[in-house]
Amino acid sequence: GNVIGVFTSGGDAQGMNAAVRAIVRVGIFLGCKVYYIKEGYQGMVDGGDNIQLATWESTSSTIHMGGTLIGSARCLDFRERPGRLKAAKNLVELGITNLIAIGGDGSLTGANLFRQEWPGLLRELVDTNQITMDRLTTCSHLNIVGLVGSIDNDFCGTDMTIGVDSALHRIIESVDEIMTTAVSHKRAFVLEIMGRMCGYLPLVAGISSEATMVFIPEDPPEGDWRQGLCDHIKESSKTDARRTHIVLVAEGAIDRFGNIIKCSDVQKVLTERMNMDVRVTVLGHVQRGGRASAFDRIIGTRMGTEAVLALMDAGPETPACVIVLHGIDIVRTPLMKAVETTKLVGQKMSELNFDEVVNLRGRF
Ligand code: F6P
């Protein structure tokens, strides 16, 4: 049977465990050996106890858990060729020629590079007597399938990444909680929302929580945002005398000149110009914490299943794919194109308008 290695890399996200569980169970069901590669790429480089055979039972009672039980790390060693050479040796020794990488765009780019280098790495391992020629022959191709696990929803080509929905729940729960104290004191709250250069979470959270204003990187406010915010509050107060205002600020929010809009800037405006009592709350890693929502458990399971099926279908010439959500369908899409478009959006964000970003992302 085939030998599969699964690892999670980059920032953890709720629903990763559901994906790992599905990969292990579908893999075993189809007669494969599945190995956990713990601590992301670092575990692959370090080998030893970090690479362990997965059993069916080891995934019991994990589907609801947040985070990633097999650990994740940001790994510098894997960025250098000597690190990748060690990783290749560790995989080949166990006959692992199928990898499922669960992570963000950085982690998936690394996986693709590894795949391209694989024949050269194996040749070097033979030349330096670290593996036999036999091993090279049986392990000559590395198949890679990616799953996008990230709370940010910043990956092009998928409607939702694993973890976004749970993060959204965390944000809304936090806003609901803050609301009770905000209303009691007639205070305004400015909340910083994580998500790197992607405004999906604050935008959707804003709709779900009746926020007064949302600042996101993809759509810098036209004109003077300070004045715009004050005018909006004055205008809306005519028809809706609210006891509180909630403003959501994406961590990557910018003004029309490309300057970061900080929560403290918004607080200053509301305090000085609107005479409001204002508090700032940075939600931070609370967003990434806690249980996986039903939606993340389900897409994690469906994507994990599809990842194993994609590996089973892959031949030496099949390009690496990433498993994505299109509408309600789980489908395969070329990994490299998705990674390149994601990079492009990041680099050109300031030159693109909101619609262009949405189009490039595929479905926002
Ligand atoms: O990419 C996920 C994410 O949580 C971002 O939203 C955030 O900017 C970043 O990771 C935080 O990174 P770290 O966990 O290393 O502090």
TrEMBL record:
Main location: cytoplasm
RNA-binding as UniProt keyword: no
Residues annotated as domain Phosphofructokinase: 4-310
Location relative to the cell: Cytoplasm
The organism's place on the tree of life at top rank: Eukaryota
Molecular function (Gene Ontology), one example: monosaccharide binding
GO BP, one annotated term: fructose 1,6-bisphosphate metabolic process
A cellular-component GO term for this protein: 6-phosphofructokinase complex
UniProt entry tagged with the keyword Transmembrane: no
Keywords, sorted A to Z: Allosteric enzyme, ATP-binding, Cytoplasm, Glycolysis, Kinase, Magnesium, Metal-binding, Nucleotide-binding, Transferase
Listed name of the protein: 6-phosphofructokinase
Stretch of the intact protein here: 59 to 422 of 822
